[in-house]
Design brief:
Elements: H1 10-21, E1 23-28, H2 33-38, E2 41-43, H3 45-54, E3 59-63, H4 66-75, E4 80-82, H5 91-94, H6 98-106, E5 112-116, H7 121-125, E6 129-131, H8 136-141, E7 149-152, H9 155-165, E8 169-171, H10 184-193, E9 198-201, H11 207-210, E10 215-216, H12 219-228, E11 233-237, H13 242-249, E12 254-257, H14 277-286, H15 295-310
Parallel strand pairs: 1-2, 1-3, 3-4, 5-6, 5-7, 7-8, 9-10, 9-11, 11-12
Helix pairs in contact: 1-14, 3-4, 4-15, 12-13
The structure holds 1,3-dihydroxyacetonephosphate and iron/sulfur cluster.
Length: 316
Amino acid sequence: MTQPDLPRDLYAAIEDLKRARNAVLLAHYYQEGDIQDLADFVGDSLQLSQAAAKTDADVIVFAGVHFMAETAKIVNPGKIVVLPDLEAGCSLADQCPADRFAEFIAAHPGHKVVSYINCSAGVKALSDVICTSSNAVDMVKLFPADQPLIFAPDRNLGAYVQKQTGRELVLWNGTCQVHETFSERKLVALKVEHPGALVLAHPECEPQVLRHADFIGSTAAILNYAVGRPTTTFIVVTESGILHQMRKAAPDKTFIPAPPEANCACNECPYMKRNTLEKLYLALRDLEPRIEMPEALRVAAWRPIQRMLARDLSAA
Ligand code: 13P
Ligand code: SF4
């Protein structure tokens, strides 16, 4: 039922407010299709952090999860950054509290720290460089081969990077609650059912799932791969929100979401899906809830992000 203080045409009202506020709407591929369609830019985590760093809008509305909006604020302290639902968190970020991570680093003297962008500002501030799923291998390769490294907080992405680089990494034991649900057994059955299909997987998936993949990459890389190949059927092993852009970009192709182990909708991220059109409208109208943090924390968290964006460990 429509709430009394909400306009009938939410699409038009959101467009009007975006103009009135000089706001840019950034959306991740895991958002609902209607939010993606309203966005000024849809991308993966790296593309969104780059877009946030270079926007000249006064307001950034982040249709994604908390660590993404926080990153936008870290690179853009002068702008208002709103997240439609402050409870839109991330299991990876939650599993790596900054105080415990500081103890972990202290227990590994001489190690440098590469942290996946799916972490809090507090964890970023303890890191030497940030990475995303699209550049994790490259960020690790920036360090001399004999430099001991910690990789946090995703053990699956870390294991994938170890395999790609041949380097030993000390892994923090975190996982994405969405990507760890995919079932190897059901994936193999689906491959048998669709013998011509290619399997596209996100590196947050577990190794026993990744070993069946024809292509492993970030959400944007998976999308580009599927659009660019002559193959017509793909099994997609990541959060199901990406299917919206895949079907838009290649309407004649067939995209099959890989099944989770249980009979559930656990291939949908419950954090990403907390954002709704209604909350988006209210966030633009009220410019709340905002992302704020102490300046000292912001600067400490900005340095490793800046090194990632510059692809240079001596930057910042
Ligand atoms: P990418 O956007 O880098 O593909 O990561 C996916 C993800 O899980 C974001 O939370
Ligand atoms: Fe976090 Fe996984 Fe959701 Fe991405 S899909 S926001 S990694 S819980």
